[in-house]
Write a structure and sequence with these properties.
By secondary structure, this protein is α+β, with helices and mostly antiparallel strands. Helix content is 35%, strand content 29%.
């Protein structure tokens, strides 16, 4: 991790300048770039392919649990947001507002807005309000419940400080919205989705997470409870990777969502909402990548194996390409994670080193180089992205074909274990305010478990002094009564403090 001992593909390295390293990994892997539209990004094919694999996997899992996809308008009437006081207060400063419906040329020949709308529209920052209005029309009886829907969409929140994937003005996400006849059912739904997110993060993104509840000051606007999954990045900062909200009857009362129960008595429904976004790709980058570029977990990789034909003499081109095509056909007939392997053959007119490094930077799990020597010996020259570049080795073709799925499973498991070990190494238990201040003043820190009384003013002071926030109150934790390290008041369990994105 330093440029004086060895040359790396990404400059600067993680140790030298982590924020700039992150930007350079995105550039080298051709994931995305800054858009001409302020605060927005353009996702390139490799980056969007990763998102598609995330989307397809999550979509299948949500459908198995009974959720159905819908699509609502991008524009939301302003009066919809006004109906839920906490909601509008939480999002008002981030809203992009549409006030006109056409452009005309002025006397100087410049296009200017014209045709002022009677009521402005908000470009959706989230869809609880417009979906709540629909729920009020769709739900009449207990027989209409539970109502379980999900939307894949783009949203806009006018962020002042943006960073590719992690925080952009426009981003892609899924947002689930459900309505239930009882508080018990709605709370069960909230936790079911939180568990689904946590399993997905660990099993597919190889990103270990901690499930917890947000403090009152960190709740989603209008929610009664907000639950989250928190991951640790390689700079030891936390990343909120997904949230699930129990909304109670707040939105049903605001939007008049009622139903007749089995005894024909009218009741308010209980609602939930939850979502993950393209921020997951930022988490993937910062959880696994190294100073040579991106590392993509095989389960969501756009390509599992890339074949690199190495042609030094034109007379060998046909035989080498036939050998590569035959290997590709056999690989595409192989199953990994219940799907056919995704294979590419790189036929660009580049040197072997240039080809190999371009795929190292993209993070493809397995790359095989094939030249005349490999063809004659019925072998492949194999490199794995979980290993150092110099660890490439020759392997018999039949042996490679027989073990490729197992090797992908190994890579997935290895990078998960690395991330898990890193999280453990950088998690501490602190028993005094002094320890906490020293821990975060010296470095980015990590996850700090400490007792807290529940006073929101302490959160505000920590953010001001150290840029540290209370990430969550862990759900899976030993109840360890103690005293708040700030006030000495009673505390039921330790919470997690960290610097965060």
């Amino acid at each position: 991790m330093n440029s004086t001992k060895s040359k790396t593909a990404i400059v600067p390295t993680r140790a030298e300048n982590y924020p700039e390293w992150y930007q350079q990994v995105i550039k080298a892997a051709e994931l995305a770039e800054v858009s001409p539209v302020r605060g927005c990004m353009t996702m390139r094919p490799w980056g969007y392919a990763i998102w598609e694999n995330i989307q397809h996997t999550l979509d299948d899992q949500l459908k198995v649990t009974g959720h159905k996809n819908v699509y609502f308008p991008l524009l939301i009437p302003v009066n919809f947001l006004e109906r839920e006081a906490e909601h509008i207060e939480g999002f008002a400063k981030e809203c992009a507002v549409v006030t006109h419906y056409r452009l005309i040329k002025n006397e100087q020949g410049k296009l200017v807005p014209d045709g002022e709308l009677e009521e402005p529209y908000i470009i959706r920052p989230t869809s609880e309000t417009i979906i709540g209005e629909a729920f009020a029309r769709w739900i009449q009886s207990y027989r209409d419940l539970p109502l379980l829907i999900n939307q894949w969409a783009n949203v806009m929140r006018w962020e002042m400080r943006t960073r590719l994937f992690l925080r952009t003005s426009e981003f892609l996400w899924q947002e689930g919205h459900t309505a239930h006849a009882s508080e018990q059912e709605a709370r069960a739904e909230t936790m079911k989705i939180l568990d689904l997110y946590a399993r997905f993060a660990e099993e597919y993104l190889a990103m270990p997470v901690i499930k917890g509840e947000k403090s009152e000051s960190e709740r989603f606007p209008g929610a009664i409870n907000t639950y989250c999954i928190e991951a640790m990045m390689q700079d030891r900062k936390a990343l909120q990777a997904g949230t699930s909200h129990y909304l109670g009857q707040n939105f049903s009362r605001a939007f008049n969502i009622k139903f007749l129960n089995a005894t024909s008595k009218e009741e308010w429904v209980y609602t939930t909402s939850w979502g993950v976004s393209t921020r997951l790709i930022g988490g993937l980058i910062m959880s696994h990548s190294d100073d040579n570029g991106l590392i993509v977990p095989p389960k969501i990789a756009p390509c599992h194996v890339v074949i690199l034909p190495i042609i030094h003499k034109e007379e060998h081109r046909t035989s080498i390409m036939e050998y590569c095509d035959a290997i590709a056909a056999q690989l595409r007939a192989t199953q990994y994670n219940h799907q056919a392997l995704r294979i590419e053959i790189d036929t660009r007119e580049l040197t072997g080193g240039e080809k190999a490094w371009s795929w190292v930077k993209k993070g493809v799990p397995i790359r095989i180089e094939v030249g005349e020597k490999e063809r004659q010996q019925n072998t492949v020259f194999l490199g794995r992205r979980d290993q150092e570049y110099k660890q490439r080795f020759a392997q018999n073709r039949d042996e490679f074909l027989a073990t490729v799925s197992r090797q992908l499973e190994e890579i997935q498991a290895i990078i998960l274990q690395r991330a898990h070990d890193f999280q453990l190494r950088n998690t501490v238990t602190l028993n005094s305010k002094t320890e906490l201040y020293e821990f975060f003043a010296k470095s980015e820190g990590g996850f700090a478990y400490a007792h807290w009384s529940g006073d929101p003013s302490i959160e505000a002071k920590l953010k001001e002094d150290l840029n540290v926030t209370l990430r969550c109150i862990p759900l899976v934790a030993t109840k360890e009564p103690g005293k708040c390290i700030f006030t000495g008041e009673k505390s039921e369990q330790r919470v997690i403090f960290a610097k965060a994105y």
